[in-house]
Structure to design on (80 residues):
């Protein structure tokens, strides 16, 4: 069994309204030192595959087809 951690974030230059809302809220709570907030997604998967190479291939397919929007998001993953 392999554990996969996937991190999805907006590409640089893509507006992040959720991040801006969190940034404003942090400022209103007195955390003026916060300069920028970018929001993203974090996922953990367990895979039952025969090899690391097959896991990498399948995770890339999952990200491209469902877990990330390749037009506006980047992703990276770690396999344990």
């Amino acid at each position: 069994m392999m554990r996969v951690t996937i991190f999805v974030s907006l590409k640089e230059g893509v507006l992040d309204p959720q991040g801006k809302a969190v940034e404003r809220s942090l400022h209103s709570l007195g955390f003026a030192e916060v300069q920028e907030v970018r929001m993203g997604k974090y996922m953990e998967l367990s895979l039952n595959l025969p090899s690391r190479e097959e896991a990498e291939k399948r995770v890339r397919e999952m990200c491209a087809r469902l877990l990330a929007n390749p037009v506006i998001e980047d992703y990276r993953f770690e396999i344990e």
Summary: The mean pLDDT is 97.
